[in-house]
Automatic annotation (TrEMBL):
Keywords: Sigma factor, Transcription, Transcription regulation. The keyword RNA-binding does not apply. Belongs to the sigma-70 factor family. ECF subfamily. SUPFAM superfamilies: Sigma2 domain of RNA polymerase sigma factors, Sigma3 and sigma4 domains of RNA polymerase sigma factors. This is RNA polymerase sigma-70 factor (ECF subfamily). Residues 39-96 form the RNA polymerase sigma-70 region domain. GO terms for molecular function: DNA binding; sigma factor activity. Residues 126-178 form the RNA polymerase sigma factor 70 region 4 type domain. PANTHER family: RNA POLYMERASE ECF-TYPE SIGMA FACTO (PTHR43133), RNA POLYMERASE SIGMA-70 FACTOR ECF SUBFAMILY (PTHR43133:SF46).
Length: 190
Protein backbone atom coordinates (compact mmCIF):
# COMPACT_ATOMS: atom_id res chain seq x y z
CA UNK A 1 0.00 0.00 0.00
CA UNK A 2 1.20 3.47 -0.80
CA UNK A 3 2.04 5.98 1.92
CA UNK A 4 0.43 8.94 0.13
CA UNK A 5 -3.14 8.65 1.44
CA UNK A 6 -4.20 11.90 -0.17
CA UNK A 7 -4.43 10.47 -3.69
CA UNK A 8 -6.44 7.25 -3.71
CA UNK A 9 -6.72 7.28 -7.48
CA UNK A 10 -3.15 5.99 -7.61
CA UNK A 11 -3.93 2.97 -5.42
CA UNK A 12 -4.37 -0.50 -6.81
CA UNK A 13 -7.79 -2.09 -6.24
CA UNK A 14 -6.37 -4.54 -3.68
CA UNK A 15 -4.88 -1.70 -1.63
CA UNK A 16 -8.18 0.17 -1.65
CA UNK A 17 -10.02 -2.92 -0.47
CA UNK A 18 -7.57 -3.39 2.40
CA UNK A 19 -7.88 0.26 3.40
CA UNK A 20 -11.64 0.27 3.53
CA UNK A 21 -11.99 -3.22 5.02
CA UNK A 22 -9.37 -2.96 7.72
CA UNK A 23 -9.54 0.74 8.55
CA UNK A 24 -13.09 1.60 7.47
CA UNK A 25 -11.46 4.23 5.28
CA UNK A 26 -14.32 6.08 3.62
CA UNK A 27 -12.04 7.71 1.04
CA UNK A 28 -10.82 4.32 -0.15
CA UNK A 29 -14.44 3.17 -0.38
CA UNK A 30 -15.36 6.30 -2.34
CA UNK A 31 -12.56 5.56 -4.80
CA UNK A 32 -13.90 2.02 -5.32
CA UNK A 33 -17.33 3.54 -5.84
CA UNK A 34 -15.96 5.97 -8.46
CA UNK A 35 -14.08 3.23 -10.30
CA UNK A 36 -16.95 0.75 -10.55
CA UNK A 37 -20.25 2.64 -10.33
CA UNK A 38 -20.65 3.50 -14.02
CA UNK A 39 -19.78 0.02 -15.28
CA UNK A 40 -22.19 -1.60 -12.79
CA UNK A 41 -24.89 0.95 -13.59
CA UNK A 42 -24.66 0.27 -17.35
CA UNK A 43 -24.87 -3.47 -16.77
CA UNK A 44 -27.88 -3.04 -14.46
CA UNK A 45 -29.60 -0.67 -16.88
CA UNK A 46 -29.56 -3.38 -19.57
CA UNK A 47 -31.55 -5.74 -17.30
CA UNK A 48 -33.96 -3.28 -15.68
CA UNK A 49 -36.68 -1.13 -17.11
CA UNK A 50 -35.58 2.24 -15.81
CA UNK A 51 -32.62 4.31 -14.78
CA UNK A 52 -34.10 4.70 -11.31
CA UNK A 53 -34.29 0.93 -10.79
CA UNK A 54 -30.71 0.53 -12.00
CA UNK A 55 -29.48 3.31 -9.70
CA UNK A 56 -31.31 1.83 -6.70
CA UNK A 57 -29.82 -1.60 -7.33
CA UNK A 58 -26.29 -0.22 -7.62
CA UNK A 59 -26.82 1.84 -4.47
CA UNK A 60 -27.89 -1.33 -2.67
CA UNK A 61 -24.74 -3.13 -3.84
CA UNK A 62 -22.49 -0.42 -2.43
CA UNK A 63 -24.51 -0.15 0.80
CA UNK A 64 -24.07 -3.89 1.31
CA UNK A 65 -20.39 -3.69 0.42
CA UNK A 66 -19.85 -1.08 3.12
CA UNK A 67 -22.06 -2.84 5.67
CA UNK A 68 -20.32 -6.20 5.14
CA UNK A 69 -16.80 -4.82 4.71
CA UNK A 70 -15.36 -6.62 7.74
CA UNK A 71 -16.72 -10.08 6.95
CA UNK A 72 -16.64 -10.07 3.14
CA UNK A 73 -13.87 -12.03 1.45
CA UNK A 74 -12.78 -9.91 -1.49
CA UNK A 75 -9.96 -11.27 -3.60
CA UNK A 76 -10.85 -9.19 -6.65
CA UNK A 77 -13.15 -6.22 -6.05
CA UNK A 78 -14.28 -6.06 -9.69
CA UNK A 79 -15.31 -9.72 -9.69
CA UNK A 80 -16.89 -9.37 -6.24
CA UNK A 81 -19.04 -6.45 -7.43
CA UNK A 82 -19.96 -8.26 -10.66
CA UNK A 83 -21.19 -11.28 -8.69
CA UNK A 84 -23.05 -8.96 -6.32
CA UNK A 85 -24.72 -7.32 -9.31
CA UNK A 86 -25.69 -10.68 -10.80
CA UNK A 87 -27.22 -11.78 -7.48
CA UNK A 88 -29.11 -8.55 -6.89
CA UNK A 89 -30.44 -8.55 -10.46
CA UNK A 90 -31.63 -12.14 -10.06
CA UNK A 91 -33.42 -11.19 -6.82
CA UNK A 92 -34.88 -8.12 -8.52
CA UNK A 93 -36.20 -10.18 -11.44
CA UNK A 94 -37.72 -12.79 -9.10
CA UNK A 95 -39.47 -10.07 -7.07
CA UNK A 96 -40.75 -8.47 -10.25
CA UNK A 97 -42.12 -11.78 -11.57
CA UNK A 98 -43.79 -12.54 -8.23
CA UNK A 99 -45.39 -9.10 -8.10
CA UNK A 100 -46.63 -9.43 -11.69
CA UNK A 101 -48.11 -12.87 -11.00
CA UNK A 102 -49.90 -11.44 -7.96
CA UNK A 103 -51.26 -8.50 -9.97
CA UNK A 104 -52.44 -10.84 -12.70
CA UNK A 105 -54.10 -13.15 -10.19
CA UNK A 106 -56.20 -10.22 -8.98
CA UNK A 107 -57.32 -9.23 -12.47
CA UNK A 108 -57.38 -12.53 -14.37
CA UNK A 109 -60.70 -14.30 -14.45
CA UNK A 110 -60.67 -17.79 -12.93
CA UNK A 111 -60.64 -20.87 -15.16
CA UNK A 112 -64.20 -21.81 -14.26
CA UNK A 113 -65.75 -18.52 -15.23
CA UNK A 114 -69.18 -18.34 -13.64
CA UNK A 115 -71.20 -15.19 -13.18
CA UNK A 116 -71.26 -15.60 -9.40
CA UNK A 117 -67.46 -15.90 -9.25
CA UNK A 118 -67.10 -12.82 -11.46
CA UNK A 119 -69.38 -10.82 -9.21
CA UNK A 120 -67.57 -12.02 -6.08
CA UNK A 121 -64.17 -11.22 -7.59
CA UNK A 122 -65.33 -7.71 -8.53
CA UNK A 123 -66.74 -7.18 -5.06
CA UNK A 124 -63.50 -8.43 -3.50
CA UNK A 125 -61.35 -6.14 -5.65
CA UNK A 126 -63.55 -3.17 -4.79
CA UNK A 127 -63.42 -4.07 -1.09
CA UNK A 128 -59.61 -4.36 -1.20
CA UNK A 129 -59.32 -1.01 -2.97
CA UNK A 130 -61.74 0.63 -0.54
CA UNK A 131 -59.93 -0.83 2.48
CA UNK A 132 -56.54 0.31 1.21
CA UNK A 133 -57.93 3.83 0.83
CA UNK A 134 -58.96 3.78 4.51
CA UNK A 135 -55.41 3.18 5.65
CA UNK A 136 -53.25 6.10 6.76
CA UNK A 137 -50.97 7.22 3.93
CA UNK A 138 -47.74 5.85 5.42
CA UNK A 139 -49.34 2.49 6.27
CA UNK A 140 -50.80 2.23 2.75
CA UNK A 141 -47.44 3.13 1.18
CA UNK A 142 -45.57 0.55 3.27
CA UNK A 143 -48.16 -2.14 2.52
CA UNK A 144 -48.16 -1.46 -1.24
CA UNK A 145 -44.35 -1.55 -1.35
CA UNK A 146 -44.36 -4.81 0.58
CA UNK A 147 -47.15 -6.66 -1.18
CA UNK A 148 -47.38 -5.14 -4.65
CA UNK A 149 -43.74 -4.25 -5.30
CA UNK A 150 -42.40 -7.17 -3.26
CA UNK A 151 -39.89 -4.99 -1.39
CA UNK A 152 -38.26 -6.39 1.74
CA UNK A 153 -38.78 -4.83 5.17
CA UNK A 154 -35.18 -3.64 5.06
CA UNK A 155 -35.61 -2.00 1.64
CA UNK A 156 -38.81 -0.26 2.69
CA UNK A 157 -37.20 0.97 5.90
CA UNK A 158 -34.29 2.39 3.94
CA UNK A 159 -36.47 3.99 1.26
CA UNK A 160 -38.91 5.61 3.71
CA UNK A 161 -36.40 6.40 6.45
CA UNK A 162 -38.21 4.18 8.98
CA UNK A 163 -37.00 1.53 11.36
CA UNK A 164 -37.62 -2.08 10.37
CA UNK A 165 -39.92 -2.41 13.40
CA UNK A 166 -41.98 0.56 12.16
CA UNK A 167 -42.29 -1.07 8.72
CA UNK A 168 -43.41 -4.35 10.32
CA UNK A 169 -45.95 -2.41 12.41
CA UNK A 170 -47.46 -0.76 9.32
CA UNK A 171 -47.65 -4.07 7.42
CA UNK A 172 -49.30 -5.78 10.38
CA UNK A 173 -51.76 -2.90 10.78
CA UNK A 174 -52.73 -3.10 7.09
CA UNK A 175 -53.13 -6.88 7.11
CA UNK A 176 -55.25 -6.74 10.26
CA UNK A 177 -57.62 -4.21 8.70
CA UNK A 178 -57.80 -6.17 5.43
CA UNK A 179 -58.63 -9.37 7.33
CA UNK A 180 -61.40 -7.60 9.24
CA UNK A 181 -62.92 -5.97 6.17
CA UNK A 182 -62.53 -8.95 3.82
CA UNK A 183 -63.63 -11.69 6.19
CA UNK A 184 -66.87 -12.28 4.29
CA UNK A 185 -65.13 -12.58 0.93
CA UNK A 186 -62.46 -15.11 1.77
CA UNK A 187 -64.60 -18.30 1.66
CA UNK A 188 -65.33 -17.60 -2.00
CA UNK A 189 -61.69 -17.65 -3.00
CA UNK A 190 -59.82 -19.92 -0.58
Amino acid sequence: MRDDSSNYSLYEDDDLVKAFQLNADIRAFEEIYKRFWFKLYNAALKRTTSRQEAEELIQTIFERLWANRQKAVINNVGAYLAVSLRNILNDFQRRKITAEKFRQSLHTPPVSNSTEEDVNRDLLLKAIDSTLKELPEKTRTVFLLSRFENKSVREIAGNLDLTEKAVEYHITKAIKLLRQRLKGYLPFFF
